[in-house]
Amino acid sequence: MSTYIFGHTNPDSDSIVGAISLAYLKNKLGEDCIATRQGKISPESEFILKKFGIKAPELKTSYAGESVYLVDFSDLAQAPHDIKEATILGIVDHHKLGDITTDTPLECWIRPIGCSNTIVKEMYDYHKVEIPKEIAGMMMCAILSDTVIFKSPTCTKADTKAVKELSAICGIDDYKALAMEMFIAKSAVDGASARNLNTRDYKAFDMNGTRVGVGQLEMVDISVLESRVGELFADMKLMKEEDGLHTILILLTDIMKEGSQLLALSDDISKVEAAFKIKLQDNQAWLDGVLSRKKQVIPFLQPQF
C-alpha cells in the first residue's frame, strides 16, 4: 500500500516540489511513496515543473485510512478535512509547530530555516542519496522562491549553501537570473480572477480558537494591481463570510521594493493595527521590509488573539 506525501492547501512551490523531492528520496530508501497535492498548481510552480520536465503531483484531497508524510505545514487548518483519520508517518517543515497531533511516533524534521526543500536536501545528504539533476533544479527554485532570492529574513546560511550545491548538480550557474524568470512568471496577473490572486498562496490559521486567513502574492511589481484592489477587497469579503473568518489579510509583496502592501478586513481592525503598530487607511498600509508571512506577520498577529 502506497504512502502519500503532500503539502498544505493552496500549495506553493515549496509544497509541490517538496512532495516530489521527498517522495523520490523515500522511494530510494525502500518506501513506496507517491507525491500528491491538495490544490491547483500556481503559475510559479507550473513554470518550475515545465522548466525541468517533471509531471505535477496528482490531485488528492481525501486521505482517510492512508499513511502520509506532511511537507511544509503542521497546522490542521491547512490539512485535508480527514487528516485525523490518516496515519502521519512524518513531517518536514520550516514553520512554527502547528496543532496537528499523532497517535504514534513519527519522523520529524522541523528547522527554523527558509524553505522545506533545504531540509529535504539535508535529508538526501544524511541518507547519502544522489539527487537527480531535474529534481535538484526544482529544489533550487523552491528555495529561491521561499527566500525571495535570499532577501527574506527567514533565509539562513543553510539555504544559500543548499542553493549553491543544487545549482552545481543541475548545471545552472546563474541561478539568480532563473529566479527572476520564475518571479516574472509568478507575477502574471492578466486574466486571473480576484479569487485566484487572493488564494495563490493563502493559508488559514486557528489563532487560539479564532479563524484567521492570510494570503500573500509575491510580485516583481505590485503596481500592476493598483486598479484591481477594489476587486481583491470584494473577494476578501466573500472569503471572510464563506470561511467564517474573524480576520483576513492579503499581502501584496513587491520583491524589488522589499515590502508589502497590506489589505485587511477584520471584525476588530484594532488587532491588525496593534500587531504591526500601524494605522490603516482605507483598510490598507505599506509594511516596509516585510517579505515573510511566517516570520514577520504570523508571530505578531497571533498574540492579538
From TrEMBL:
What InterPro entries does this protein map onto?
DDH_dom, DHH_sf, DHHA2, DHHA2_dom_sf
Specify the enzyme's EC class, one word: hydrolase
Q: Which cofactor does it need?
A: Mn(2+)
- Where on the tree of life does the source sit, at the highest rank? Bacteria
Q: Which SUPFAM superfamilies match?
A: DHH phosphoesterases (SSF64182)
SMART domains assigned to the protein according to its UniProt record, in alphabetical order: DHHA2
TM regions (residue ranges): none
Give the EC number(s) listed in the UniProt record.
Answer: 3.6.1.1
Listed under catalytic activity are: diphosphate + H2O = 2 phosphate + H(+)
Q: Does the keyword Transit peptide apply?
A: no
Ordered alphabetically, the record's keywords are: Hydrolase, Manganese, Metal-binding
GO terms for cellular component: cytoplasm
One GO molecular-function entry? inorganic diphosphate phosphatase activity
Q: Which residues form the DHHA2 domain?
A: 179-305
Q: Do you know which NCBIfam families this protein is assigned to?
A: PRK05427.1 (NF003877)
What protein name is recorded for this chain? Answer: inorganic diphosphatase
